[in-house]
Every structure is written in structure tokens, then in C-alpha cells.
Amino acid sequence: xxxxxxxxxxxxxxxxxxxxxxxxxxxxxxxxxxxxxxxxxxxxxxxxxxxxxxxxxxxxxxxxxxxxxxxxxxxxxxxxxxxxxxxxxxxxxxxxxxxxxxxxxxxxxxxxxxxxxxxxxxxxxxxxxxxxxxxxxxxxxxxxxxxxxxxxxxxxxxxxxxxxxxxxxxxxxxxxxxxxxxxxxxxxxxxxxxxxxxxxxxxxxxxxxxxxxxxxxxxxxxxxxxxxxxxxxxxxxxxxxxxxxxxxxxxxxxxxxxxxxxxxxxxxxxxxxxxxxxxxxxxxxxxxxxxxxxxxxxxxxxxxxxxxxxxxxxxxxxxxxxxxxxxxxxxxxxxxxxxxxxxxxxxxxxxxxxxxxxxxxxxxxxxxxxxxxxxxxxxxxxxxxxxxxxxxxxxxxxxxxxxxxxxxxxxxxxxxxxxxxxxxxxxxxxxxxxxxxxxxxxxxxxxxxxxxxxxxxxxxxxxxxxxxxxxxxxxxxxxxxxxxxxxxxxxxxxxxxxxxxxxxxxxxxxxxxxxxxxxxxxxxxxxxxxxxxxxxxxxxxxxxxxxxxxxxxxxxxxxxxxxxxxxxxxxxxxxxxxxxxxxxxxxxxxxxxxxxxxxxxxxxxxxxxxxxxxxxxxxxxxxxxxxxxxxxxxxxxxxxxxxxxxxxxxxxxxxxxxxxxxxxxxxxxxxxxxxxxxxxxxxxxxxxxxxxxxxxxxxxxxxxxxxxxxxxxxxxxxxxxxxxxxxxxxxxxxxxxxxxxxxxxxxxxxxxxxxxxxxxxxxxxxxxxxxxxxxxxxxxxxxxxxxxxxxxxxxxxxxxxxxxx
Length: 805
Description:
This protein is of the alpha+beta class. It is built from 30 helices and 15 strands. This is Bifunctional uridylyltransferase/uridylyl-removing enzyme.
């Protein structure tokens, strides 16, 4: 739309205001309503036209030694209806009285028209000094654009500011990061605030400008690629969406405003043809999280690209440390190994993510883009290794959140779970919820990881936490829809049919305990009976729902979980468990007859055969049953980077027969002859396994945390045989854990008759049948438990629930 601006000799800016108001009114036959983008462009043209004309009128011409430069929104060509005018009047040693006269004739009409004006009058050297001393001023001048007057003067400023920004970025980068973090702490995340600050919040327009500033410094790309499957259209689309919403916010409010108020959201959503306030909130969440992820990548990339000076230039290039098969750490990021082949390795996505979560290192944006472009789809059912990597990712606590967010913003998470699209950025309908539905699911997983040792099946707890609200965003009951989706996903993951049924039941009944405990009379026997009937009398399902109820409440928001709710649900679970039949304990696996024959032959035998999956193998050890054999055998496997996924350990006469299902951390497994040789050395005391494992753990990429997500737990049970007892350990896995456990048991003088070891992601559930003889007593069991817990990392105290308001 072309708007005629009357140029009066009086120099008044009332025509500018009148023309702006005409643009904002619209909606008439002869003057249709401009959409947000067209309105911004029209406002840029309008202000450029008025300033050009006014500048010529007051003597700002090409040969005057004066120039008018726009910064801020007008400089970026992002003029909003009530944005401030940010102008700089440059002069080149012009008579001060002349400069003052020109400035007065330029500024006063704008003030008289009540237009907000941020102005300055400087020479180019003065402006450059201001930019050098004031980071905020420097960032503003990076957007400078010539309006009228001596173009060479403007170019000197624009080029000088950008040149000094590039050369000085090394010394200013820390201040730039601190300024952004301070702004984020003050204004919160746009994606998870009821009334977000579109300009200053995390994921807002200031962050787009931060990316532009890093690009001008030649440290990163202002619009980094996010892969072909990125949800929401990528960073460019996110930028446009944020600008559109802020433009309509100005139009609705009738003044400059950055914070989107709830009462304006429906009108703005309708104006942008997005929908109601919930649809608008979802759009903003998607845009802000895309911007937030891009800023994380940009700052990390920029930090690695900073020019080195002095002795730092002589440092060696960062070492590439192996983390997993095809995955290494390089320069503080998780990247692909040089020999990785994403096109032939569909499970590589999850290995990269699991390594990132375990190490606490971010995934390289280049690596994620390459995976997005090259990695094929995982076939149904998933290989066992892919499921295990998913469980490792989900079991790392708070580190899971960042890893899943990175996968989701680059389109990879949606490829693994197409059902995720229905809840991605879905705003909560209840004010008690802090997060969007998808973020709430991942928050629940993080809290569930800290509760994983309370259940016998930590893998099903984590999967249930991930899927429990996946049915939201539809008109039907989300628990019923979610149960159907859980069945579909469980089959895709390759779970056993019985586990698929349990997972579906977790999702179907995830609200059963809190709803029943807070709404019904617990003293009424019918209350517990109703729970037992709904769950089919399954004590394992009851145990899983109890842990999920706590994790779900903690992830909902502050104050949702407390002593009152915990006591009610705990009492309901206690009464329900009494009404259920006891759960059978673990039993030893039968021993293969061929192994029995080898045991009779004597000597040490080590065999290695292919396992069920691409990367799994079975190691069988048959040897004389000597004290510490189990510790030595498990230690040798760990020393050769063979992770024990499960094991069945038993004795026959004077021989021990141990079968381990293992997965190499890197490459191919070692020759079984080498395993046998090291086992014999360990048994004879010629190989110090404890020291070797400590070195291996220390050198495994990064030193592991001395703490675990979940509190390790020991459960005792009787076998019905005098002098025997079952010890079950639930804990977080670590390098050589089984060897350390067996060594701790041996140090107490007990004999392990048989054992069943099960590693599910990042957690282990290990059962040992111990021969205690006549010395079985509570004090003896406490002594054994203390020895076992001494080799298991203690729990790190969990952080308080995060509050985004």
C-alpha cells in the first residue's frame, strides 16, 4: 500500500502518525487490512519516506557532511506499529551550531507528535568508541542502515562497527554470553510461560539478533540448518512467526508491548489465522524452542571457533575420544567417528543420543544434520541394541531433557516416534501444569529415572513415563487413546508381548492411583478391591504405577506432589498389595547339558558365539568354582569393553558355569582365547583387575559421575532352603559393576550358588542366591548389604522442581 505523506514546511510529524494510523485501521473496501508482514514492510517504507524527505528539508544531503542512520527495528527493516525510532545523526567535523540546528529540526517534530525516539548525534569515531565500550550499543549498531545524507559517512560507521566487532569478539564473547543468560533468567522461556516476553524471553527476537551478531563475527551461521524433517519449518519460519505475533500484539494493544497477555491471545490468534489462544501458545512454543535450540548451537559453535591468541595457538587439536560404536567426543561435543556409516546403521541415532546423555556433552549440530539426512528408518521390531540405547537415554535423569530436545528440534525424535507430533508443543489446558505436554513427558522420564530402583522393571517405568500422556491432543479420553498408542509403540520397540500388555496398562491406568487415593475412602475395602480388579491383581503393575504417580506429579509443577498426596497413595498401594497374591521371586536358569559335560572335564573353557542382535554376543565360561571367580570373569569382560547385558550364573559340583550376554563398546569382540588367557591370569593373581578397571573407567571418554540418578536398593528374600537367601540389587550401571559386586560378596565370605543379572538401559537388577550357612542373621545380612553398597555409586540429591514462572 502506498501512503502519501504531506511534506509541510513546518516539518510536523503528525502526517507520519496519521499515515501510520491509516495503515493500522484497514479493513475497509478501499483500504484492506494488511497482514502482519505487509504491515511491517509498509511501516518501513513509510518511515523511510518521511525521514528521507525531512532529512533533505533540514539539509541532510549527499554533500552536507551529515548522514542519518537507523538502528533497531527500522535498521533491520522490522518496523512494528509502535516501535521506538532509533536514529543516529552522523557528522564529519561540521560546525556544532549547524549540527545542533539540524538535530533540533529533525527531533522536535517527532517529539511533538509523541513518537518515541532514541537518538544520538556523533562523529564516526565517537560512535565507534561508544560501540567499543558498550556491548548493548555495539549490538544495536550492527543493525545500522543508511537512510539519507552522506552515504560514505554511513558506510564508514557500518563497516567500522562490523570490523571492530569481528576483531574484538574474542574479548567480548564471555560478556555476550553472560548478558544473554541474565536476560533469560530475568524473562524466562517463551515456550513455557503463560504470558511470555516475545522480545527478551529465551527463544525470542533478541536471540535471533544474537545469532545475527555471531554471524557478523563470522563465528557461526545466522540461520543454521536443522535438517530436512525439522518440525515447524525451521529458524527462518520461527523468526517470522515471532515477528507476526509481536506485530499483532502492538496492533491489539495500541502501543508498544513485548509481553503477550492472556486476554489478548485469542484476538491475536484469530488475526493471524492460527486459531484460539491454545493454538497460538503451541505456535509460539514451537518457534521459541526452535530459536532456543539454534542459539545453543550458535553459542557452542562460536565458542569453538573463537580465534586463538598467544600460547593457545600452539595447543594441539582436541583428541577424539571414543564413546560408543561409531561415536566419539571431539572439542566438547558428541560427533560421529570417521568410519561411521549412518546410511547402513539405523541405530546410530540412538547411540549418539545415549552417549550424549551419559557423558553430559551436547550433540554436534553437524552430526545431527548428517543423521537427519542419511540415517535410515529403524525397522519394526527394533533391534535389541536400539531399545537398550533408548533405555540408556531415558535413564540418565536431567541429561535426557537436552538430548531429546536436540533430537526433536532436528526432526529425529519424530522419526523414531511419529506419534509425538500430536503432543509436540501442545499447551496444557490446566493451569497447574508448568510445561507443554511433550516437555512434561520428558520431565516425567527424568523424575522416573531417580525412582527406577523402586521397581523390578525400570525399563517399563521409563517407557511408561515417556508415553503416559501421549494420547492428549485428541477428543477421546487420553488414557484410552494412549494405551492403544503404547501397544503400537511397544510392538515397534520389540518388547515381549507380556511387556507390551504391561506398558499399555501403565498408560491406561496412570491416573488410577492418584484419582482413587484423593477421591475415595481408603478405609472402605471396596476401594482397594477396585484397584486390584482394574489391574488384574498384578503386583508388578501396581508397583510401576506407584512410582509413575510420583514422577508424574513432580513433573507437573510445584506443589503438586507433597506429603499428603504421597501418604494417601502409599496407603492405597499398601492396602491393594495386601489384597494381591505375592509375586514369584527369581529362579536359576537350567544349565545346558553340553556345558555340564565340559564342567566334568575340568579346566578353564571360554567360548564366544553370536547373540540375537547385530552387536550382541554370548560368552560362556566354565571353570573350577574358586572364590572370586565370578568377579574375575566379569572383570575380564569389562576390561575388554564387553558390557554385560544379562547373565545366568550357576554351579555344578566343583565347577562354575557362567553365561553372559554381552555387547562390545566398540568394534568386534576379542578372541575367546585372549579372554581365557586373561581369566587364568586373574584367577592366579597375575592380573590386577581392580586397578585396571579403575584406569579404564577413568579413561572412558570423561570421568563418570561419582553419583547415581536413583538411590541403590537392596531387597532380601528367603528361598525356603535353610541357610540360603536371595539378595536383589537395583542400581545404576557402571563399568565393571558386576565384577565389583562379586568381589564385594566374596570379601564377606559368602558363596554365590547362582545369580541372574539383568541390565536394562542404564539400570541393573541383579539377583544373587547366597549360601549363608548357619551364620544367617540380620546383622550378617546388614554386613553383606553394606559391602555391596560400598561399590555402588550413591544417589545424587535431586534438584528442586523447576519453576518457569
